Amino acid sequence: MSDREELDWQLFGTASRELAEMVAEDGFEPDLILSIARGGLFVAGALGYALDVKNLHVMNVEFYTGVDQRLDLPVMLPPVPSAVDLAGARVLVADDVADTGATLRLVRDFCADKVAEVRCAVIYQKPRSEVSCEYVWRNTDRWINFPWSVLPPVVKREPRVVDA
Length: 164
Description:
Blueprint: E1 4-6, H1 9-26, E2 32-37, H2 39-51, E3 56-66, E4 69-77, H3 83-86, E5 90-98, H4 102-112, E6 117-125, E7 135-139, E8 143-145
Parallel strand pairs: 1-8, 2-3, 2-5, 5-6, 6-7
Antiparallel strand pairs: 3-4
Helix pairs in contact: 1-2
Pfam family, one: Pribosyltran
Protein name: Xanthine phosphoribosyltransferase
Organism: Nocardia macrotermitis
């Protein structure tokens, strides 16, 4: 058995559809899907189509810097979603993996006092995650090779600081 979980594009299609079916069967009808960029963008888009939700928002959070390498704490990057856009909504937070759960906790806590309800949907959840997601396609304790991040970038960019 490999020390890595392999998700290709075809299996991602199956996983995202089954994840959407879990949400629908549970009776949860989100008003909007909040994607955690970057891996959650793919999940949110697929869930948006499957659940017929056109209102998609993005929250940029930096945490991972490499394979099993991360910052001490996740950091929200601008632009941060407006509280007005989230007010009173039923929100489905979408991400590719709940690894430590720190990123999901940050986003869920950000939403908590602004929205009517917040639930989380992920393709994978690891046993060590401090957030237990309501919708999980698979549980694993292995590193995951996602189809969008398994190959190196075509262009390697240096981080830029943008003046506010």
